[in-house]
Amino acid sequence: MDTNQRNTQIAIGVAVIVVVGLLAWWLFSKPAASTGTMATSTGTSITTDTTGTAASETDLSGSGNTVSSSGEALSVGDQPAGDSVRVASVTLAKAGWVAVRDSMRIYGAAWLTAGTHENVSVPLLRNTVSGSNYTAVLYADNGDKKFDMHADALVTGVSDTFSATNGD
User: 108-134 burial string, b = 16+ CB within 10 Å, else e?
Assistant: First the structure.
């Protein structure tokens, strides 16, 4: 093998490594949604501002503080699987978060002011799957207006379970 062939093979090898590295970086560092939201799958808490949503691949066991319901209400019906969940009605005594979760992770959360809201769309960072069950829950914000499932308090006694359907 002459020097030119060897140099060409080395250049191709380096180019392949660079492309694979860039692809891996892009897959693991791209924003979760176009609204400026951010999620991490390696940390134990997620932070986002009040204009966005948040989700986590984090185990929900021991997921933070809790508070008892003080007039909050929540209603979600079965709906097609997808990248958002429509919450039919939410009533909050104070501003906070409505979040969608399964037994292992939070899929997304949306900031709401105090009062009653109808047809709230909660964008998700991970699509729901047809045939699976999910639960909408409320979190009382700790005052920083950033969703963090460990710092914000889960409102107990208020949740609604629904099924993702195939859209038929």
Answer: bbbbbeeeebeebebbbbbebeeeeeb
Q: Amino acid identity of 78? A: D
CA 97-100-104 angle, 5° bins: 120
Confidence of residue 60 (pLDDT cuts 50, 70, 90): low
Are 36 and 26 contacting, i.e. CB atoms less than 8 angstroms apart? Answer: no
CATH of 66-165, one of 2.60.40, 2.20.25, 3.30.450, 1.10.357: 2.60.40
Residue ranges of domains in the chain = 66-165
pTM above 0.85, yes or no: no
pLDDT in tens, 69-114: 778 999 999 999 999 999 999 999 989 999 999 999 999 999 999 9
Residue with tokens 């997808």: 82
